[in-house]
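Internal tracking record. Fields below are filled automatically when a chain is submitted to the structure queue. Please do not edit lines marked as system-generated. If the sequence contains nonstandard residues, flag them in the REMARKS field before resubmitting.
Queue: standard
Priority: normal
Entity type: single polypeptide chain
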Amino acid sequence: MALPRMKVVRKRSASAVGMLTAGGVGIFLQMMKRNLGTVGKVYSVDQSGISRFPTVLFCSIVSGCVLFGRFMLYADELSRKALEPTTAMVSDSGIGAERVFLPDSVTASSADPDRPKRYSLPCDDMLSDLCADGAAARRCLTCGADLCLFCCQAHRRQKKTASHAVTELESTKHCSQAGKPLFCPSHPTEELRLFCEQCDQPVCRDCVVDGHRQHPYDFTSNVIHRHGDALRELLKGTQQHMSTLEGALSQIDDMGSAVRSRTEAVATEICLFASGYVKAIEEHRDQLLKQLKDLKVQKENLLHLQKAQLQQLLLDMRTGVEFTERLLTSGSDLEILITKGVVASRLAKLNSIAYNTHPSVDNGIQFSPQERAGQCSGYEVFGAILNKVVDPARCTLHGEDLHSARQNQLTGFTLLCNDTTGERMGRGGEAVRVTITHKDKRDCAVKPTVCDNSDGTYHISYSPEEPGLYAVCVYVKGQHVQGSPFTLMVKNKFREHQGVFHCCTFCSSGGQKAARCACGGTMPGGYEGCGHGHKGHPGCPHWSCCGQVKESSECLGGPPSDTSQRSLLRTVVL
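SYSTEM-GENERATED OUTPUT FOLLOWS
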């Protein structure tokens, strides 16, 4: 007679079921009574609730010891961490139904409705369902249990499980656990087969009656298509975004490569430019130094020449002075009278020799960093040596209205600055001062405006308010320029013509006999004005008010009388 069997469950981080013989059950129960507080929960199951796969029993005395019938397996009993006891949830499907084990913390959460519920989901680091130590390497397709290599061998040795199909776990690790039924966390014996639409979560039959009453629900097989389609649409959109993002990342990588390449190319250009520019600057520096050296030699030669000339002149004068003094002190009267003519001629010639008491050159050597110096090796360079010094005595004044001006009329003239050799300075910045004062009225002065053209020329403009004679003084560096001071005649205000510029009075007046002209011409027949070819006509167009033949001229006639004004009215209007 077969001994009755009892299913005792004790799991450490993985589900396990133990199967013992009747003799083994007695020993095991005695051990469990002594260590009930530390071993875990023990359930007694009758013959109809026996699992199809072999039961594994953990020893309560030695941690990590697994009892397989009459065999013992020790697996890391000293280094294994304390594992959470689990409780088996038995399906109502009877014999052959697969058991999914949830931790005791999940079963305890059924008393707390606010606590989040947990479900069994696939995991990459799965352990065997029959032991707590071995990593799952295979799966039984018949009972759905994950087995380690040792449990797989034991699974095949058992008579009831020897015919089960076992496959490698590697080929199924990416597949879902759809073949395993999930049990309700609130009702461990009920399988999750329904879906609550309002709460958006799977529920069991007891949940529909209890906590999800009046909530719309349906079987999971009926709603999976709708929810699956929604997930597929979201997945499709996400995949499109992924493609877009991958393209964007590719473009960013390409742009980064392009930026790096362009940066390297520009850096090369900068280095080439800087190298060429440095060479151009060095070449310009050498040119400036050579120019400065040549200028120094030139000035020194001029100074040596002037020195030699003055030394020779001084020697000649000293010789003549010594001879004359010795003649006057030691010579007789007759000797003095005889040599007087020669000595006097010699001394007069020495005294008539012109010589410059100032050095022929100066130290006016300057360097202007802002001065444009043209191009050097294809690069524009700056910096020039300025050795010209303005000479006020060689500066000249130019202008048509240099000595004449009109009252309250803007006029002016130009100052041209030259150096000691008479060459144009070519640059500005000199100290120029101009004064214009009335000769008769000392308190009447004109304030001129000096404009520096930065090319060695200066434009002086002024507008006199009073007519008369003025004295104009132009200074450069405090010294009079060539032609300064000079006089300026300011005439009265320009008089506009009051008449008309016509060919004759007869034409301009339309044949009026009373119309007259300032030229004094008349016509026979009682015409008081001039006519072509008649007496007094100047023979060319002229002004009727003053007789001037130049159209752009000042009116020289006096104020017209009333009679003449009336007689010229017709002419003026025409």
